[in-house]
Design a protein that fits this description.
Blueprint: E1 6-8, E2 18-19, H1 25-28, E3 33-35, H2 41-45, E4 50-55, E5 60-66, E6 77-78, E7 81-82, H3 89-92, E8 96-100, E9 107-112, E10 118-119, E11 124-125, E12 127-128, E13 131-132, H4 134-162, E14 166-175, E15 178-188, H5 190-194, H6 198-206, H7 210-219, H8 223-233
Antiparallel strand pairs: 1-9, 2-10, 2-11, 3-5, 4-5, 6-7, 8-9, 12-13, 14-15
Length: 234
């Protein structure tokens, strides 16, 4: 895989650059977990199981969509194509990204010049006569939204952890009659959720957390889909 060449986006340097539609399949095909934000849980739950993974260094949790049952496996990439009907925001941002300015509270936009989606021949132009195109403006808005959504999702996840609603879980899947355990993931503890005090439950509702919680709980049924895909591809 080509090395990334991430550069600040500049209207002169990148005057003729275009971005093709699509996702970075080359990168995605080895990703079995991809971060998701609470705002897309309902869409994600229609396609993928979700879980939380723990960062033991700082004791925080990250919500992820599961694309495979083991590291390096993405069951939704076949013959170099993305086969799912939806891709999470974390994977559709590429080849653009936001980088926070070290001294100021500002973000700069960067582009991976080595991406197969970037070129001068086909795709969506980023600049016209030195000015940002509507396409680039939309992409920038989406990048900023993703940062904001990520912060909301962090607060949501911290709330669940503080209320001890996340539980370490082993998922067992059946692949062609063989049982396989998936460890190291955390799910929402439905039993504890149902035992919450009225005050805590009201707090969940007031913060708008009930919808993502129920989407998350529904999504775990998609694990069986991963198992089916794995059996088919084997």
């Amino acid at each position: 895989m080509a090395e990334q060449q991430v550069q600040p986006l500049h209207n002169e340097k990148h005057a003729n650059i275009k971005i093709k539609n699509g996702i970075n399949v080359e990168f995605m095909k080895t990703q079995h977990l991809v971060p998701v934000v609470a705002h897309e849980f309902a869409r994600v739950a229609n396609e993928f199981p979700m879980s939380f993974v723990k960062n033991n260094e700082n004791d925080t949790y990250q919500a992820v969509a599961m694309f495979g049952l083991e590291p390096g496996e993405n069951l939704f990439v076949e013959d170099g194509k993305w086969t799912a009907a939806f891709a999470p925001m974390a994977s559709t941002r590429y080849p653009l990204g936001l980088v926070k300015h070290p001294e100021q509270d500002q973000f700069g936009i960067v582009i991976d010049e080595a991406s197969a989606l970037v070129g001068e021949d086909e795709g969506n132009a980023l600049f016209e006569n030195g000015e940002e195109t509507d396409y680039l403006k939309r992409r920038k808005e989406a990048l900023v939204s993703f940062i904001e959504f990520s912060q909301v999702t962090e607060a949501f996840t911290k709330f669940l952890a503080d209320k001890e609603l996340l539980i370490a879980q082993t998922l067992t899947v059946d692949i062609k009659g063989e049982k396989k355990d998936i460890n190291g993931i955390y799910l929402i503890d439905e039993k504890k959720l149902n035992e919450l005090s009225d005050a805590d439950f009201l707090e969940l509702r007031k913060r708008g957390y009930l919808a993502p919680i129920y989407s998350f709980l529904t999504s775990t049924h998609q694990v069986a889909r991963l198992a089916r895909l794995k059996a088919q591809q084997a």
